[in-house]
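Technical annex B. To support the medicinal chemistry partners, we prepared a structural model of the target in complex with zinc ion, based solely on the information shown next.
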Amino acid sequence: MIPVQRAAAPQNTQTLLGRRTDAVRSAGATTRAAREEWRKAATPKRHIRDLLRGMAHGAERCMYCLDNLGTDIDHFQPIAVAPLRAFDWPNHLLACSSCNSNHKRDEYPCDEAGNCLLVDPSTEDPADHLLLLPASGEYEALTPKGVQTIRVFGLNRKDLVIGRQTAFVVCRSALHDWHALLLSGDTVSAAEIARALRLTPFADVLRSLERSPLAPSAEVAVFGAKTAAALTEWRRTHRVIPGSTHR
Ligand SMILES: [Zn+2]
């Protein structure tokens, strides 16, 4: 999981969504009323989906697993928990059906004070709660929120772990190629590889490499000299600060 920059909803979209919220409220603000209103809300859904697609990483990947195509509008705070947030734009994220329907569903764990224990990638940096170990392909929790996020979204499910391990190998190889092309002066081909890297599924793997908080010597020991050198140049070229949580 990596940060997502939420787009501002245009005024006409906000108006559409506001009307639907009013309708849910008028119908008693129940889960059933919200689900019924959501079911028949084809136009608002189209607006929401278009906005979310523009925010998604790569080729419209799921904002949770970054692997599958983001096909579903997920209610971060489920309709079952907050019917009046069914049409609340900040509550919408793009998810694949596996993350949305098979894993998260209506789960919304909270701590004793009522604070949500799931990471919302549109409001916070997941790296504050989750550490991706790129070679192993697994996430480690840094906080209780990280623990619940891994559990609820199934972030360490087998297909994702294998996918990240594979992405790590491909990513390193592409970084080597990119660096070699850059050194040879072929900036056009290097830019093509850089673009492909950004569009590849599992954008969290590239981000974990480029934001790695390891010291340069440790990076050489962990990833090898060739990868460490390519990463140093990649960060310089793309103005990425290692260890930072900024976009
Ligand atoms: Zn997913």
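Notes passed to the chemistry partners:
Residues 62, 64-65, 68, 95-96, 98-99 surround zinc ion (CB under 6 Å).
The mean pLDDT is 94.
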